[in-house]
Amino acid sequence: MNTINIKDFSEYPGLRHCKISDDSGEEFYHKVLNNAFKTAYEKKEKITINLDGTAGYAPSFLDEAFGNLVYDFGKETVEKNVTIISEEEPDLKEMILNETYPQWQERRKEKDKPKKTEEHKTWFILINNELKEIESYS
């Protein structure tokens, strides 16, 4: 099983978007989480994301990072393939599972695209159970 420790990305995770904060949820998603999830998905492995060990989170960081994941891969696929660990703040895990996942699944359904505040290298999405590499949402 693959594990991502967010503390390895930053001890001080920022806010939602790159334009307003260093080490943002948007940056974490595009630099770490998207490719790690895609690799685990291809290998039919689960991925564990450990929230512990940082100085704390703005809820917008977690919402953006996990929300983009749900938007690009779908709630059911994410729920099946992601385990979230948060011993230090278990309410963060509950927020992601009970608020972020359903809200972003609704955005996915409505095609309400996530905001990108800086250029990102290509990233992966799941369309009709097929991985696609994209540069932007069309």
What does this 3D model show about the protein?
This protein has about 140 residues and is of the alpha/beta class. It has one domain (about 1-135). It contains five helices and five strands; from the N terminus they run βααβααβαββ. The strands form two sheets. A three-stranded parallel beta sheet has the order 1-2-3. It has a two-stranded antiparallel sheet with strand order 4-5. A hairpin with a 2-residue loop joins strand 4 (about 125) and strand 5 (about 130-135). The longest helix has 21 residues, at about 90-110. The chain is globular. The model has no long low-confidence stretch (mean pLDDT about 95).
How would you summarize the topology of this molecule?
Elements (H helix, E strand, L loop, with lengths): L1 E4 H4 L15 H18 L4 E4 L8 H15 L1 H7 E4 L4 H21 L12 E5 L2 E5 L4
Parallel strand pairs: 1-2, 2-3
Antiparallel strand pairs: 4-5
